[in-house]
Amino acid sequence: MKKCYQKLYEERKKRGLSAQNMGVLLHISSSYYWQIENKKRKLFYDLAMKISAIFSLKPDDLFYEEEIDK
To answer: Which domains are delineated in the chain?
Structure first.
């Protein structure tokens, strides 16, 4: 199991944004954002929608992780 929202991390890095940039865009602290990205804090629907809007993606595209048992 991944310890972070891997797709979210990759999208943020691809766009050259830091956790601090995301905090500013979301009106939260960079620490709070980092904790969400690393699954240390619960992600609520309203914040998932705001994060998704920043990347022009659907929430499922960032936060849904399909796991397949092999």
So the answer is: 6-63 (1.10.260.40)
Instruction: Report the alpha-carbon distance of residue 22 to residue 30 in Å, rounded.
Output: 7
Q: Given the structure tokens 């691809």, which residue do they identify?
A: 14
Closest CA to 42 of 63, 21, 56, 16: 63
Amino acid letter for position 36: I
20 C-beta neighbours (distance < 10 Å), count: 13
- Each residue of 23-40: pLDDT tens digit? 999 999 999 999 999 999
Q: If you compute the radius of gyration of the chain from its CA atoms, what whole number of angstroms results?
A: 12
Find the length of the chain. 70
